[in-house]
Design goal:
nucleic acid binding, RNA-DNA hybrid ribonuclease activity, ribonuclease H, RNaseH-like_sf, nuclease, Nucleotidyltransferase, domain 5, 7 helices, alpha/beta
Length: 193
């Protein structure tokens, strides 16, 4: 068992952690150990989370949007909920990231690797927000930023966090993304509170 723990401690990247879980899952009895290790990362290490948003009938009156946050297999923080307010895909993507950061902060997690298939969210928070703020929340063409309130909320949540924003191609077989997508779709089916 010590060699398994030493191997885990040597892991530095999320894909190696997934490989570790695959390897020890072969031994059946150790599979729960793999889940426990993914639930409780070492202090000071980056924690990996996948987020996704979805919206059926996007742009229409009967649109239904949901957000999904996936921390790992069987993780108690995995969640799929209905997006409150205006139902759009872009808002769902932003609010999925917001939910993950809220959850991380509640767990005293300060370092987060956030995987999303939304380049809009990544570009918005890492590149565009600063320019929008300087321009009085106007785009480069002088139009109002449509998702201003959403990006303001996201930016405020990122304060005091060390977040690495990572793009993952959607619907490409990446388990974390597929699970976040599944959770978002489940959330979209829920009633709006």
């Amino acid at each position: 068992m010590d060699h398994i723990v030493q191997y885990f401690l040597s892991l530095k990247r999320e894909f190696k952690l997934c490989e570790f879980v695959k390897r020890i899952s072969v031994f059946g009895a150790l599979a729960p150990c793999a889940v426990a290790l993914m639930k409780f990362p070492l202090p000071g290490e980056f924690v990996v989370v996948y987020t996704d948003g979805c919206c059926s009938s996007n742009g229409r009156r009967r649109a239904r949007a949901g957000i999904g946050v996936y921390w790992g297999p069987g993780h108690p923080l995995n969640i799929g909920i209905r997006l409150p307010g205006r139902q759009t895909n872009q808002r769902a993507e932003i609010h999925a990231a917001c939910k993950a950061i809220e959850q991380a902060k509640a767990q005293n997690i300060k370092k987060l690797v956030l995987y999303t298939d939304s380049m809009f969210t990544i570009n918005g928070i890492t590149n565009w927000v600063q320019g929008w703020k300087k321009n009085g929340w106007k785009t480069s063409t002088g139009k109002e930023v449509i998702n201003k309130e959403d990006f303001v909320a996201l930016e405020q949540l990122t304060q005091g966090m060390d977040i690495q924003w990572m793009h993952v191609p959607g619907h490409s077989g990446f388990i974390g993304n597929e699970e976040a997508d599944r959770l978002a779709r489940e959330g979209a089916k829920q009633s709006e509170d």
